[in-house]
Amino acid sequence: MVMTMIKTLTDANFEAEVLQSDKPVLVDYWAEWCGPCKAMEPAIEELASDLDGKVQVAKLNIDDNRAVPARFNVRGVPTFMLFKDGALVAAKVGAQTKSQLAAFAQQ
């Protein structure tokens, strides 16, 4: 199943899974009530498969985890952030196409 390629992030594991990761991590900040977030699910699952081994794709539910979104000033969902070597290198807010996300994740 593809979802196993997508890490589920929490406030508790964010440091270990993202900031200490040895490869780039694309974080998808989302919420259960967010229509565009749900609409992007298939593209994110395909992207996780396409980028397997190169970029880790991870999701963080902003309703269940408040500390990390506050730390990185997440104001709306979906928000995508790319982390490399423990640092935030890029952020995008709003729904993206799979090709836009792929280009974003591999910059």
Descriptors:
Thioredoxin-like_sf; alpha/beta; single chain; redox-active center; Glutaredoxin; globular; 107 residues
Task: Describe the structure in your own words.
With 107 residues, the protein is of the alpha/beta class. The protein has a single domain (7-106), classed as Glutaredoxin (3-Layer(aba) Sandwich), CATH 3.40.30.10. 33% of the residues lie in helices and 27% in strands. The protein is built from four helices and five strands. The protein has helices spanning 14-19, 35-50, 67-71, 98-105; strands at residues 6-9, 25-30, 56-61, 79-84, 87-93. A five-stranded mixed beta sheet has the order 1-3-2-4-5. A hairpin with a 2-residue loop joins β4 (79-84) and β5 (87-93). The longest helix is centred in the middle third of the chain and has 16 residues, at 35-50. The radius of gyration is 12 Å and the shape is globular. The mean pLDDT is 94.
